[in-house]
User: Fold Probable 6-phosphogluconolactonase from Acorus gramineus.
Amino acid sequence: MAEASIRSEKPKHIVFKGEEELSKSLAKYTADLSEKFVRERGAFTVVLSGGSLIESLRKLLEAPFVDSIEWARWHVFWVDERVVKKDHPDSNYKLAFDGFLSKVPIPPGHVYAINDALSPEGAADDYEACLRQLVKTEVLELSKDNGFPKFDLMLLGMGPDGHVASLFPGHPLVKENQRWVTFIKDSPKPPPQRITFTFPVINSSSYIAQVVCGSNEAAAVHNALGTEKTSDPLPAAMVTLKDGELTWFLDEAAASLLQDKASL
Ligand SMILES: O=C(O)[C@H](O)[C@@H](O)[C@H](O)[C@H](O)COP(=O)(O)O
Assistant:
């Protein structure tokens, strides 16, 4: 098992007056990265979360982005998914489909949803096999550093307890360092059964936007953006890119306990 990696300096964070300003900036950030990766390698691999993130992507559905983005080049994944049917109200796929994916022309074959007929173990294996196949077809790149898949952009949320994906504080899964995709059956946030990317995959990304709004998350933001060394960091503090760029997108409420909280 890997030691928890602890960053030595504060990651970049941007504070917005409100969620509206944040969502406009997040749309431009995502559209610019889409343009860059499509130009450089003809594809853009984007990883979504559940929760409030999907609502914060709504500006991508508006001009100028909706018409300028090359949606046909997008490949969409989930950093974590609840093990429920795809039409269940708890499904992260359903959340993203209803609020975002159904409104843009991404080819259905480029949207990599969980196999909802399988157990958590089976669904995690199946998702990992899907990723390995996409490496073979060169949709997905591997990190030259560690051989884990390297996604172009991960759009992450964070819970009030500092969890990211379905990697929860104090849970052994935060130390998983072999698997690409694993499962959890005792998630403290319901529903209990989920699959999730592991930290080596998250931390191999080219870009991560860590998107957090609201005062419920302020204490965890303060904790995660601190540089104090601790033997038991919050999962959000374990998101750290050696060969990539991590940016926290915060609204004023989420940033309220930070000293450096000048907003845009
Ligand atoms: O399945 C899930 O629960 C989500 O994928 C989860 O990982 C989410 O990103 C965080 O819990 C933050 O959720 P909020 O943005 O709603 O706080």
